[in-house]
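Quarterly update from the structural biology core.
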Amino acid sequence: MADVLFKIEGTPPPRLDKALARNVPERAISRSRLSRMIIQGAVEVNGVVVKDQKAKVAEGDQIVIHVVEAADSHILPENIALDILYEDTDV
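Predicted structure, tokenized:
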């Protein structure tokens, strides 16, 4: 798990989710993923876990986002028999 730490600078949007979408550094995290992370409790504002997307933020607030990296998928190809319905020299 990697943590993203930053401080709200300038005049932030009034809602936490919009402030995060505007201010998240170094990583491209979509607004929908940020919203899910807030609901799941992966976002702290000034050391307090916040689960409300509409929570107010202010300039100078310290934000920590606990980013869980996606697990590697081990899907392998499988050799299966296919029925050929049509075949010619161009296909």
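The domain at 2-67 is CATH 3.10.290.10 (Structural Genomics Hypothetical 15.5 Kd Protein In mrcA-pckA Intergenic Region; Chain A).
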